[in-house]
Amino acid sequence: MGSGPVTISAQLEIPDGEIVERFVRASGAGGQNVNKVSTAVELRFDVANSPSLPNPLRERLLARRDRRMTGEGVLVIDAQRFRTQDRNREDARERLAAFIQAGLSVPKPRKATKPTLGSKLRRLDAKRGRAQIKRGRSSRDWE
Fold this sequence. Notes:
By secondary structure, the protein is α+β, with helices and mostly antiparallel strands. Helices cover 37% and strands 16% of the residues.
């Protein structure tokens, strides 16, 4: 049904058998063409059970908070930007590739740091200065 595997990188490719595409009618303005032709594409890719994804990549993709991901770990992409079925299919596959490519980069672990002595002293001095300004106010200043 598809148009070949989706190439993510030189080492990673998603075979056509793992992608489910369904063609539906597009919503919105467009005249009679929208009512007659099923040009929109709903692409589904099971991230949780895909044998072609390495485990670390799968875990990073599932950990992302993305509204397109279902509770079962299935990524659903709706493509209806274009008027033709082929172009919408191409768009959906490009967006799938972009989603997976975003998970390829491993985030750098955050190192806990402590504020320097100078920054602590500057902060406390600023607090003392604000307190002094507020202490100088009186209730009659506002009348």
